[in-house]
Each structure stands twice: as C-alpha cells, then as structure tokens.
C-alpha cells in the first residue's frame, strides 16, 4: 500500500512499465513467446475438451474417461468415469518410471544448532514406503475410503506423508493451519465428522513451540465425533497423554505416530478413485461467521494443478531445478503448489518449517542460497516485510540460482514488485503474480514467465481454458479500464465442487450474483477488478465482507462473533484498513457492557480473546470503543463509514440514512488503540 503521496506517485509510474522476459529465458521455457501462449489460449478456448484431455494424458489413469466434461451449472464433472489416484501420480508413478532415488521433498527444520539446521531429503521411494505405512496405520484405526481425516500439524515431512497417505486410500483430508485455535479445530472436526485427527506434540515457530496437542485436547472436550488422535513427536514438548479412552476426553484415545507405523506394512496399493471422488476439504472464511468446507475432487484438480505448476513456474524435471513455495500446507497454496501440482512434475519441492526471520532476518535467503532454489513463490506481505528489514539481508547471499519469482494471496503494490524484481531477482527473473482462490484450486490469472510481459501490480492474463471477465451486477461485460466484478464464465478442472454439507450456501455464494442475458450463472469470485487496454487484469480487492490479512482470508463477521463472545462486548463491527505490511489490517469498533472500562488492558484482553477463539492471525490491529455504531434506519451497520474512520478519511459518501449522525463524531473522538 502506498503510505504517502510520494510513493503513491511512484506506484503509478511503476504500474505503467512493462517488463518482457529475457530472450535466453524464453528460449528455454515451456511456453516461450506471446504467440505460443496465445495459440495455447485459443486452443483451450476453441476446444476445451481436447486441450484438457491432452494434458490429462501426461498423467496416469487406471481407467480412461468417457467424456472430458459434463457441465450442468453449477455442477461440473471432469474426466467422467475415469479412475486414478493422486498419490500414485505424485509418488508411485515416479518410482515406476525409474526415478525412485530422486528427491521429492527437501525439508528444513527451523532450529539451527551449531550453525546448521536439520535437513531431510525424501525421495519418491521414501515417500512410497512412508505413505504406504502410514496409510496402513490409518486403516488400522478404522479409516476407510470416504472418511474425512483431520490434520493439524506443523510443517514437517510427516504432514506431506499424512496427506498423501489419505489420498492413497481415498480418505479425504481436512487440513487445519497450525495457527488456528482450539475452537476453530472443534468447529472443523465437527463439521467434517472426523473420527481421526493427526497432530504433533508441537511445532517450532520463531524459536518457540506452538502447543498443537494442547490445542487439540482443548478442542476434544467440545467434540464428540473423534475416536483417535495420532501424535507425532516433534519437539519433546510436555503433553497430556490419554492412553485409554476417557470420558473426560469424549472417549477418544491418543496414539504415537511412531508406534503405529512401526507395526505397519509398507505394502499398500493406491485405491482406484473415481475422478469426482472427494480429495480434500479445506475450510475458508466467508461472509458469515461459519467457515465453509470447500470441496475439491480428484481428477480435475490433479490435471489443473499439474499443468499450472508446470507452466507458471516453468518446471522442468531434468534441469536441476529446486522449487520453493513458502506457504504453509494448511492453506490452499501449500496443498496445490507444494505437494499436489509439484510432485507430478518431478521437481524437488522445499518444505520449510518455521519463520522467515529465525534466527535472523536473512533465513529465507540463506535457504535459497544453500539449496540453490530456482523457483521461489511467496506472498506480497512477506515481500513488504523483507523490504522493511533491509536490503542487506538478501545481499549477504548468492541468489543467482533463482529463475522465476512468484507471488500470491493479495494484490502486490508496484513498489514491492519493483523491490522483488531488483533486489531478489537481480532484474533478470520474471515475476509471476498469480491470482486464484481456495475455491479455484489452482492458478486462474497469471503470467507465463517466458511469454508474458509483466506490469507491476497486474496478474496479467487468464490461464488457458479460464474464461475470466469483468462484469457489472447485471452480468454485462465492462469496457476496458472500467471497474467491475470478476467472474468466470466457463467451468475449469480444479473448480470447487461444493461446500461440505451446505448445497444452498454453495449456490448462494458463488452462483447467484451474476447471470448472463440467458440467465446462465457465472462463477462470482468476490473480487473487484478491471481490465486494461491490453486485456490485463488488475485486482482491486474483495467486494464482500471478507478481508485479506497478510494474504490470509478472514470474514469480518468471524472476528465480530469472536469479540461479542467476550463478556465486555455488546456489539462490534469489524472492517479492513490499510496496513503497511499486512496489506489489510483489522479495525474493530466495539460497544461495551456497563461496568467495563474502555482502556488498554481491555484492548489487550480482547485481542487475546480473538486469538483464542480464531487464531493469532485474527487479532485486531486497532480497537476503538464507542457508545454506539453508525447504523441505517433499518439497523444495518454502515461499514463504509467505519472504513473511512479506520483509514483516517473524512466521510465523503452519503450519510443521510444514518440513524444518529452524532455517533460518527463520537467515534472520531473516541480514544484510538
Ligand atoms: C483471495 C483468495 C490463492 C491462494 C491464497 C489466497 C486474493 C489471491 C491474488 C493476487 C490480488 C489476490 C483475492 C482472492 N488474491 N491472489 N495475485 N492478486 N489478489 O487464497 O484465502 O482463498 O483468498 O485472495 O482477493 O479472492 P484465499
């Protein structure tokens, strides 16, 4: 975000520049020219079935499809009637082709002892053995095809093993980011009716231990579907152990990961899964307080993430590449672009356990240099933090191995783009700004590094086969440089197939806002955007009550519910506000119950309370106490006015429907914190 006028002007200047891929880079990449890219896009548009079938044929299937796509809006079936297995395509396929000894995952732990971190290299053969053993361990706990297994783990190799083991036996996983709290775990386990949860005694983060098992124990008290908790020993952390089912813990019992796998056979064939069988559920925030369990299925997701990984990052298995995506596997970015899209491309994928600034602010650059990373994929919020920490940290290291830089999660401001280009990419690495969502499963709008001229701040052009448009609320396409709603007209392989247990919400959220003249629904992404005269997309941000904090999605209503669940808060309204590092920060306006003092002690208590209810990422950056919230005569909170206040702007909009306009003045005077 431009923080002052000067950088605002720079921002505009940078936005107007274009950066073409270097000729020698383009010559070696999968798609090496704008013409080749346009031909690929045209092919996908004219013959989507043929286009996607050809891609699918690069992967293994147990039985072929009878039809590429069956589309009855909003329901898509891709590769109808085919069977396959994603663990097979990530792992067994590589072993069978003679690549068992090649590295699949390079893992680096956070702690550094005597100057050296712990590193583990897992080959495809290792992954085949370990996923088979753990899959058998899961079976021994009664897990069978179709049962949803919840995973709440740190970024360790066993997380990758656990998810691939689930895919191996056709048990969909639901991975919960390790930063979420006990209540968030309880809600998600309950929603998915999971009987088995996999966790660890703890995980390392910035030199401290995240008490994952303790959080699970707290969640368990509230939950009744769970029978078994599998615990990996990672930190020698003190934990409470439930060897026997105890009523106080809802009748569930704990098992050590090592005990289960020590007794398990390493022979476990991959289940033949229908292309449309559920692969995983991943919860994400929406406009109401309850997170949505986004459902992704097997075949289409596999094909789309495979192709986008290959093209967007220019992955080539025989070119000494080392790919690193810094996301946590608990988010969709980690699912698609650390594991599922990358392993089938047979390029080693780095998994790093900890924080970017531990033990020092140069940790990421140290990793890039030591492992000779060729593709590096991170979020704008991280880039802004690196800028702030200073150029000396990356400059201490040899970053010359880098070839492609990627960003994801939120719009990247042109200054951050320029810094990334100059300081990390030495002005020679293409930057791929990838727009997509938990719901889209894979990249939707993105440059191709050897073919697309970049413009700082734009995610450029739709990926082949993605029919993205900017429309108004009547579904009419908008002319160039006119803002509107971002919509997708045609189905794509990795699209969500629904919200777990809530068909109506799926229809209402994504398929009811925009229709064309024939009444056909388009996928509504929830983002505002414009297209420029070259057809490039510029994402303007969410148009719903969802905010994007450090590239992580939160519903304002989730934070509001957490605040009002505290004794002191009667009513609250939460809005986004610009934040130098996070992109969007959280501003909370609260009215208090009698007898509570509006002071800093209460602010601290409320922040802790929100962290307990949701997770630390949801802590408000600013809390204002107020006697009343601005409302319309019909009682709707006027969020626009609160956004103006949070941003320190004078309200310019229409306030005539404001019920009690003195409220506004009172909030402005209220003490800020
Ligand atoms: C929302 C989706 C996709 C993985 C990470 C976030 C925003 C995402 C970009 C980008 C501008 C972006 C959008 C989108 N977003 N990528 N390159 N430029 N905005 O996944 O949590 O599902 O959030 O993130 O607002 O709707 P998510």
List the helices and strands and how they pair.
Blueprint: H1 5-15, H2 23-28, H3 34-46, H4 48-56, E1 67-72, E2 75-80, E3 83-84, H5 86-99, E4 103-113, E5 116-123, H6 124-140, E6 149-151, H7 157-169, E7 173-175, H8 182-192, E8 196-200, E9 203-205, E10 208-210, H9 212-221, E11 228-232, E12 253-256, H10 257-262, E13 273-274, E14 278-284, E15 292-297, H11 299-312, E16 323-325, H12 332-340, E17 349-352, H13 363-371, E18 375-378, H14 380-389, H15 392-395, E19 404-408, H16 414-424, E20 431-434, E21 468-471, E22 484-488, E23 498-499, H17 503-510, E24 523-531, E25 537-542, E26 546-549, E27 552-555, H18 556-564, E28 569-579, E29 583-592, H19 600-613, E30 622-625, H20 639-646, H21 662-669
Parallel strand pairs: 4-17, 6-7, 6-8, 7-14, 8-11, 11-12, 16-17, 16-18, 18-19, 19-20, 29-30
Antiparallel strand pairs: 1-2, 3-13, 4-5, 9-10, 14-15, 15-23, 21-22, 22-24, 24-25, 26-27, 28-29
Helix pairs in contact: 3-4, 5-6, 5-7, 6-7, 8-9, 14-16
């Amino acid at each position: 975000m431009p923080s002052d006028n000067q950088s605002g002007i720079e921002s505009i200047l940078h936005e107007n520049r274009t950066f073409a891929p270097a000729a020698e880079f383009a010559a070696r990449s999968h798609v090496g020219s704008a013409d080749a890219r346009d031909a690929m896009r045209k092919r996908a548009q004219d013959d989507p079935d043929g286009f996607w079938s050809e891609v699918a044929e690069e992967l293994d299937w147990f039985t072929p499809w009878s039809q590429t796509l069956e589309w009855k809006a909003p329901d898509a079936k891709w590769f109808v009637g085919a069977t396959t297995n994603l663990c097979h395509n990530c792992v067994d396929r590589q072993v069978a082709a003679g690549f068992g000894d090649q590295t699949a995952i390079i893992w680096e732990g956070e702690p550094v002892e005597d100057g050296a971190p712990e590193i583990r290299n897992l080959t495809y053969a290792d992954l085949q053995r370990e996923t088979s053993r753990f899959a058998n361990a899961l079976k021994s706990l009664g897990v069978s095809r179709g049962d949803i297994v919840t995973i709440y783990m740190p970024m360790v190799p066993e997380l990758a093993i656990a998810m691939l083991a689930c895919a191996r036996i056709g048990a969909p996983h639901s991975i919960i980011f390790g930063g979420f709290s006990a209540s968030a775990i309880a809600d998600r386990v309950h929603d998915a009716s999971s009987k088995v949860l996999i966790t660890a005694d703890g995980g390392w983060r910035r030199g401290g231990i995240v008490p994952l098992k303790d959080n699970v124990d707290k969640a368990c008290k509230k939950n009744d579907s769970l029978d078994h908790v599998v615990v990996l020993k990672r930190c020698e952390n003190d934990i409470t152990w439930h060897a026997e089912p105890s009523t106080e813990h809802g009748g569930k019992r704990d098992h050590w990961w090592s005990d289960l796998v020590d007794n398990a056979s390493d022979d476990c064939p991959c289940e033949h899964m229908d292309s449309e069988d559920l692969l995983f559920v991943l919860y994400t925030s929406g406009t109401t307080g309850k997170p949505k369990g986004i459902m992704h299925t097997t075949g289409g997701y596999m094909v789309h993430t495979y192709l986008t990984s290959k093209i967007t990052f220019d992955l080539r298995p025989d070119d000494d590449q080392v790919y690193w995506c810094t996301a946590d596997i608990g988010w969709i970015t980690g699912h698609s672009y650390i594991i599922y899209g990358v392993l089938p491309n047979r390029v080693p994928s780095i998994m790093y356990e900890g924080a970017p600034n531990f033990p020092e602010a140069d940790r990421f650059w140290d990793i890039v240099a030591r492992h000779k990373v060729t593709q590096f994929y991170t979020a704008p919020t991280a880039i802004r933090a690196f800028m702030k920490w200073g150029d000396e940290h990356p400059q201490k290291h040899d970053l010359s191995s880098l070839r492609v830089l990627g960003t994801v999660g939120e719009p990247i401001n042109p200054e951050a783009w320029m810094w990334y280009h100059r300081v990390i990419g030495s002005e020679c690495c293409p930057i791929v700004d990838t727009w997509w969502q938990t719901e889209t499963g894979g990249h939707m709008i993105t440059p191709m590094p050897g073919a697309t001229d970049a413009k700082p701040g734009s995610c450029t052009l739709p990926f082949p086969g993605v029919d993205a448009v900017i429309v108004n609320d009547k579904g009419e396409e908008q002319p160039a440089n006119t803002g509107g709603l971002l919509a997708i007209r045609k189905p794509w392989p990795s699209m969500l197939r629904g919200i777990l247990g809530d068909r109506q919400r799926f229809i209402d959220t994504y398929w009811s806002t925009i229709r064309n003249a024939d009444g056909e629904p388009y996928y509504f992404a929830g983002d505002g955007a414009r297209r420029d005269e070259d057809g490039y997309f510029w994402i303007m941000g969410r148009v719903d009550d969802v905010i994007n904090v450090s590239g992580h999605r939160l519903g304002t209503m989730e934070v509001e519910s957490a605040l009002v669940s505290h004794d002191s808060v009667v009513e609250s309204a939460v809005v986004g506000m610009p934040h130098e590092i996070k992109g969007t920060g959280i501003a909370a306006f609260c009215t208090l119950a009698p007898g509570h003092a509006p002071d800093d002690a209460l602010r601290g208590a409320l922040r802790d309370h929100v962290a307990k209810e949701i997770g630390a990422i949801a802590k408000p950056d600013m809390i204002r106490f107020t006697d009343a919230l601005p409302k319309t005569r019909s009682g709707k909170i006027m969020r626009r006015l609160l956004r103006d206040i949070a941003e320190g702007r004078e309200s310019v909009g229409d306030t005539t429907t404001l019920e009690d306009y003195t409220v506004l003045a009172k909030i402005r005077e209220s003490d800020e914190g």
